[in-house]
Amino acid sequence: MSAEEGVNRERGLAVNEDWAATIAGLVLLGLVLAGILPGWLVP
Amino acid sequence: MTEVETRQRSRVLWAVGGVAVVVVLAALTRYLEQNVPVFTKGTWLGGIAKSVEYPVYAILLGLLGNAVLTGLGFRDRLAAGFRTEFFIKTGLVLLGASINFAVIVKAAGPAIAQAFLLITLVFGFTWWLGGKLGIDQKLRALLASAVSICGVSAAIAAAGAVQARREQLAYTASMVIIFALPSIFLLPLAVDALGLSPAVAGAWIGGNIDTTAAVSAAGALVSEEALQIATIVKTTQNALLGVVAVALTAYFALKVERTGEAKVSGRALWERFPKFVLGFLAASIVATVFLESGGDKAAITTVNDLRTLFLILAFVSIGLEFRVAPLREAGWKPIGVFASATVFNLLVGLGLASVLFANFGG
């Protein structure tokens, strides 16, 4: 892997994690507020 | 199965193993945080155990795991599973749900003013000092972005903007983590010693510590209000990352590389905008509307427990990711620049936070 490819790969990963974290956080919030994920399930 | 497929499969399995290590250590953190105060109650350790909070257990267990895995020779292969950025960003989106949107609106003005002034001054100082010491332009850009904006994510964005080498990125990222780790413990101590209000403390922590995960750890050690303000301030700095990255792209294309191709467009700004900021704002709006329309407060408590879980996963990962080796390869000059910039950031940040957040109540 060239140096430039390495940096681009890191950037791609960072962008994907950004979206993944946003979606994961909002989905979890939605599940709790809708009562689908009850409090006793969260350790 | 071809050799490439086998190698890829093995990489995925190691990454899953890495995530499993993080989850096991996080479970242990939760166990210690809840049970050590019970076990030590009535003994001389009781008072100390009660005041030790989850970020301390998480980071120490991460560092311990790091030492053991490095000793066994597994650490580097498992490292793909230590996803600090994903864990912290998910935790911060969930944190948005515990902040009334009115507080975000109220804090936005001083937070934007502080972020703008701090980024400009600290970036300028680091760039100037790096130039005085004859540091490579690309490394200067990486160091200045990392110390003035938001640590590793800023270094990654700057590395893309100036086409830096992978070693320069790895080196800057290591330095960010090495400096952030002691700040998690030192800044809350300094907050106590200086007697800062929770809002000023949060603004100071948010404007100083480089990585978002470490900001949350230090904020959580001070108080819930400090954590909220620290997060708002840090999130504002994160949001300005795109502007700096685009400016750097233009500067390097026009002045340093002289290719004349500077892509300054709205699309470039959007590409570099940290999307979790939108999730953070959306969570705050949803939770505010939910509560104001008579929603059950217990649901928000559950969201807060989930947020703590993700923060623990992130703090364990900080400990697991910690590496000193890349620093030895780069020599003392960049370390000197980074250390001086950190001190400069601390002083200017304290002044700005004290002025801008002086009258900020809840």
Draw up the topology in text.
The complex is a heterodimer of chains A (43) and B (362).
Chain A: H1 3-33
Chain B: H1 3-39, H2 46-51, H3 54-72, H4 75-78, H5 84-96, H6 101-132, H7 137-148, H8 151-162, H9 166-194, H10 198-208, H11 212-222, H12 224-256, H13 266-272, H14 276-292, H15 297-321, H16 325-330, H17 332-356
Estimate percent helicity of chain A: over 70%
Number of strands of chain A: 0
> Average pLDDT across residues of chain A?
82
Strand content of chain A: under 5%
Structural class based on helices, strands and sheet pairing of chain A? mainly alpha
Indicate the structural class of chain B: mainly alpha
Biggest interface reads: A-B, 30 and 47 residues
Question: Strand count, sense and closure of the main sheet of chain A?
Answer: none
Mean pLDDT of chain B: 87
Structural domain count of chain A: 1
Number of domains of chain B: 2
- Give helix and strand order of chain B, one letter per element, not per position: HHHHHHHHHHHHHHHHH
- Given the structure, what is the number of helices of chain A? 1
Poorly predicted parts of chain B: none
End-to-end separation of chain B: 59 Å
Largest sheet of chain B, if any? Answer: none
